[in-house]
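Supplementary Note 2. Why include the ligand at all?

Several targets in our set were suspected to adopt different conformations when bound, so apo predictions alone were not considered sufficient. For every target with a known small-molecule partner we therefore ran a joint prediction. The input for adenosine-5'-triphosphate is given below.
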Amino acid sequence: MGKIIAVANQKGGVGKTTTAVNLAASLAATKRKILLIDLDPQGNATMASGINKYEVPATCYELLIEEKSVEEVAQKETTGLYDLIAANTDVTAAEIKLMEVYSREHRLRMALEPVKDHYDFIIIDCPPSLNMLTVNAMTAADSVLVPMQCEYYALEGLTALMDTISKLTSVVNDKLHIEGILRTMYDPRNRLANDVSEQLKRHFGDKVYRSVIPRNVRLAEAPSFGSPVMYYDKSSTGAKAYLALAGEVLRKNSTVKNNSTKAPNSEQVAS
Ligand SMILES: Nc1ncnc2c1ncn2[C@@H]1O[C@H](COP(=O)(O)OP(=O)(O)OP(=O)(O)O)[C@@H](O)[C@H]1O
Ligand SMILES: [Mg+2]
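The joint prediction is reproduced in token form.
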């Protein structure tokens, strides 16, 4: 059975999309079969996967509102070697229309049910809010991966997210849990970042990934080339950090069905 991971944090610009895209690509590089779902009308994960959001024939809109199948709407030719369900501004209309439809929280879960077994991991890039799209992601997901920047208000935001997750757990998805908390854009020379990081570890223990994503300009540049960072600059610290994260995700999920038992390393990427 594949595992569905929602990458979520209602705070904007914390590295959700960068994480969803580069984790998906790093996992796909280990021969796992991956589906990335762009659930954000900004369509950033779509563009970063080498798919033009303005020309894409179908998006999450068709999946959620027109009840088309994953097979019908997924793009297979992405630069990250994963399948992608795209997003663009049509997905804003989906969010509004979801309010009117039957079983609105469960649309994504129902759409993924038939294909869950076809993939090792399904990764969902959530928008920066706790709207009906994010609720759909969390209803469909087994777990939530939370990227966060170690800043002063970060812990406050995290508390709000944890409250939402526990509410959803009791109402629509009792198996939902935290997959892990990922420190992004990390600068070890920054004292505040270190303090917040220590507090995080005290509160969340081994839920905090040991892999840390440093601030790295290659990570910021790669999307404008329509590519995950590992195919843009495989020797960059950003590429290595996301490969390490993928290794950690695989180790934590060693019971998840897969086609290869090896954790990723930079040699595999280089080939
Ligand atoms: N580790 C990093 N180092 C340098 N730049 C980064 C890093 N991670 C993300 N960025 C850049 O920071 C910006 C925000 O990142 P990203 O789009 O991944 O965040 P997000 O949480 O998905 O944002 P939104 O909430 O708008 O969806 C982007 O320009 C991205 O390229
Ligand atoms: Mg994003």
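The longest strand covers residues 177-186. The chain has one domain: 3-256. Comparable summaries for the other entries are listed in the accompanying table.
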